[in-house]
Amino acid sequence: MTLEILTPDKKVFEGDVTAVTVPGTLGSFQILKDHAPIISTLEDGPVIIKGSTGEEIFNIKGGVVEVLDNKIIVLAEAVVA
Rounded to 5 degrees, what are φ and ψ at 13? Predict the structure, then answer.
């Protein structure tokens, strides 16, 4: 699966991943390979990325996630340190 995390001013992350956990409006949920197509709003919180090199965490300030054909796009309002 490929993941892109974008903010209005830059691309924060792009790469292959094995699992992604996002802070959905109704609670966090995990996206795995062959996930059904989905578009969901996101709350402030951590995006947890699991890949072959380990785990990375980006804290976002709201946004939207789209999953289609093993491609995940997170459009975040901002990424905070």
Answer: -150, 140
Burial of residue 3, with CB atoms counted within 10 A of its CB: 0-12 exposed, 13-18 middle, 19 or more buried: buried
How many separate domains does the chain show? 1
**Which two three-digit tokens encode residue 27?**
């609670």
In tens, the pLDDT along 66-77 reads 999 999 999 999
Closest residue by Cα to residue 50 from 71, 9, 74, 20: 20
Q: Amino acid letter at 24?
A: G
Q: Note if the pTM is more than 0.85.
A: yes
Full residue range of the structural domain in which residue 12 is found? 2-80
